[in-house]
Amino acid sequence: MSDISSDDKINAVAAMIAQASRIVVFTGAGVSTESGIPDFRSPGGIWTKFDPEDFTIDRFLSSAETRRKQWRILVEGGLMKARPEPNRAHYAIAELEKMGKLSCVVTQNVDNLHQMAGNDPEKVFELHGNMRYLKCLSCEARYVADEMLAKHAFDEEAPVCERCRGILKPDVIFFGEALPPGVFEQATYHANNCDLLIVIGSSLVVYPAAYVPIYAKEAGAKLVIINMSSTPYDRRADVLINASAGEVMERILREVRGRI
Ligand code: ZN
After folding, report:
1. Is 40-79+132-172 in CATH node 3.30.413.10?
2. 199 and 224 Cβ atoms separated by less than 8 Å
3. CA quadruple 95, 192, 239, 179: dihedral sign
4. Is 128 a catalytic residue?
5. Active-site choice (114, 128, 152, 190)
6. What is the C-alpha to C-alpha distance for residues 120 and 43, in angstroms, rounded to an integer?
7. pLDDT tens digit string along 52-111?
């Protein structure tokens, strides 16, 4: 892989990281594609296999049949089949935290891979929830999805809350549902107070998530965008790298280590 992006750009980003002390990393599906998780929107992605209508909050709440269907999807591992592992992009981001440079990660992903790579869960703001958990819609009890799967894999009906028999829903944001309370506000706070925001693997087309990098830029931070395709904010980036996340982040971190 020769010229996926010029050394100049890699060096420029490394220099920015070396100087920064409050970095916010903003990630989307592109950071996880190397881990084998398909982009929800791409051909062959989730929505070519499942009906997005089944993932609207209205349908989920009103139809026991939809909940049953979703439970079968979880049981059959339709969404998370191969037990994905973090890739070199996730590890590079975790290394930024070890260097003491990271304010937080703001992610659109629900795959838990930042935490698995070593980022402090307290510093990972998940705008769209986390697929690893189920949450009771009545009492807010949270369950590890794998543990419920182990207990209820052969049940016909979707399991209910062990405390109050409420409906259990994957702890991710469905279409038509509000973001988890407080999470976007915290992401906005960190964006307003960072000195460098690095977008990795997001096309910045889903709102309100896509506001986060813009808030940072407007508050005076430097903006780096690393994404395979173009985004609506490319012209506002201080450095724009159109390439996949893994190799680029690996090269950037190698440079950074030499500078701090
Ligand atoms: Zn409950």
Report:
1. no
2. yes
3. positive
4. yes
5. 128
6. 33
7. 787 889 999 999 999 988 888 777 764 455 678 999 999 999 999 999 999 999 999 999
